[in-house]
Target: HIT domain-containing protein
Amino acid sequence: MSCFRTLLKNSRSKSKEAPAAPEAAANSAAHPGFRLWSSLAQGKHDVLSYPLCKVLLFDDSNYPAWLVLVPQVPNVTEVIDLSEEDQAQLWREVAAACRALRAIFRPTKLNIGAIGNYVSQLHLHVTARDVGDPSWPGPCYGAVPAAPHAPFARQALIQRLRKALLEHAPRPCISQAISAPSPEGRANSLPPPPSAQRRAGSSGRQ
Model:
């Protein structure tokens, strides 16, 4: 059984899933109450946080890069559970991730997937694929055991991804703070996504 399938098997229960331990979750979230599930955090590393999504690197060197975008909204399992504003922001951020991967790797194909049959916390996979990769031309999800990067190579890849994700950030992000993990591994504060900003403004909160 692949490492990816092992990861997914650990979270059969959807409603009883515990949040990630503090060191595995973002220090701040776009929506109060958001916590990254420990099963989703496993085998992944912080890259940065856009206004809506936490962007993680899935640690698998079988592919040029495999990103996971997690909307920082509690209690959502489907894209349609998000507000219309957050759905639009999600796709802007997915497109930004695609542009970043294409700029770095020039892959044969970009795969986007929202599956969640085992880990139901809403998340989207964005994977750079090449002809000849271990699961080409089939889907990459659980196809072969994950091959973690060496620590130095992983850190270098994260730095390249972070730079490209900032360069290709969606237009609404340009005037907003985008957070990257601090040296201690925790994310800096970031503004809420559009729907949360609108709600805060209507209630008079700053």
User: Anything to note?
Assistant: Confidence is low (pLDDT under 50) at residues 1-29, 186-190, 202-206. Residues 84-105 form the longest helix (22 residues).
